Amino acid sequence: MGSGGFENERIRELKAFDDTKLGVKGLVDGGIQTVPKIFIQPSKGLSQELNSKHHHSSNFQIPVIDLASGRCEEIVNQIFYASSEWGFFQIVNHGVPVELLDRMMEGSRLFHEGDEETKKAFYSLNKRKQVKFSSNYDLYKSQTANWRDTLTIDNLFDGHLDPNDFPVICRDVILEYTRNMIKLGDKLLELLSQALELNPCHLRLTTECTRGWLMACHYYPACPEPELTLGASNHSDPSFFTLLLQDQIGGLQVLHQNQWVNVQPIPGALVVNIGDILQMISNDKFRSVEHRVLANHLGPRISIAFFFEGLISSAKIYGSIKELTSEENPPSYKEFTFKEFATNFFSRPLNETSYKHFKL
Ligand code: OGA
Ligand code: NI
């Protein structure tokens, strides 16, 4: 068979998977004992790396920042260090009740482990649908599918969203959780502004990014052959910044100084990471760093990613923040609207970094 034959076979397999409308969990519930070809990472690389003796040897730990530790100046310094050196940090004492975090995780679990007909009714790969269940939004674009399913909710077009469209089983908790994320997002924008030595209101006023958001409730089923596939391929986030809630299973890794560093689960903590847009408007002062999620024998693993984005309907033009550029340090990126950014992102597979497209 020529490569065209393999390609046709692959597309047939993708289509058959897509048609089940039940994602990876559907395969696992069906009793699958091996990882189907469409999920297998290109040969050697991953399994060699995971089996190598250097794996797990990293002693690094991403910064943990206590937002209630008192001294604002100290917190701002820690945020500057974490955002510029790591692009990732965890926050504790962030003001969102731990009880709400638990209820959000439980709400997502109830959806993913709930009635199959309901899930099928939400299933869609249409990027314009605001509330949808899918497995691999880039299923037909990426080289390799990821071992995860996702319930997505977004108000990216104009900030408007009808809660009646949410799955009933987690409707109330989603509303409460999103309100809390937006409030915390505003607080983080103040700290991030101060870390860039800008007026504390600067990012909140100039980005509009807490008005447009996308929430991804990920479900990573236990995997029979976790060294053959990934829960999420290497990528950086197409956001201003992202707030991630993860359970205690682990598997999220961040690329730091060429090593994959585990993001250790901490009960009650939220993970913050700088996204591509903040890297671009900060003119590379803050870094949008590659990360991935390993597949796991244990599990399922649940995480909730909340991306602060902006609005597609807004005419706002983003570019390097004036205060952060100078003659010696000119802008590194073209100006863009969020619509241009989002169109570019959604036309690519997850593992193709979107900020490169805007590099000058
Ligand atoms: C993402 C992501 C990590 C996780 O959704 O962009 O990186 O732990 N998620 O689910
Ligand atoms: Ni991510």
From TrEMBL:
* Domain Fe2OG dioxygenase per the UniProt entry, residue ranges: 206-310
What GO molecular function annotations does the UniProt record carry, in alphabetical order? dioxygenase activity; metal ion binding
Tell me which InterPro entries the record gives.
DIOX_N (IPR026992), IPNS-like_FE2OG_OXY (IPR044861), IPNS-like_sf (IPR027443), Oxoglu/Fe-dep_dioxygenase_dom (IPR005123)
Q: Name one Pfam family in it.
A: DIOX_N
**What are the UniProt keywords, alphabetically?**
Iron, Metal-binding, Oxidoreductase
Q: Which domain of life is it from?
A: Eukaryota
Its family remark reads: Belongs to the iron/ascorbate-dependent oxidoreductase family.
Question: PANTHER family per the record?
Answer: 1-AMINOCYCLOPROPANE-1-CARBOXYLATE OXIDASE HOMOLOG 1-LIKE (PTHR10209:SF429), OXIDOREDUCTASE, 2OG-FE II OXYGENASE FAMILY PROTEIN (PTHR10209)
What name has this protein been given in UniProt? Fe2OG dioxygenase domain-containing protein
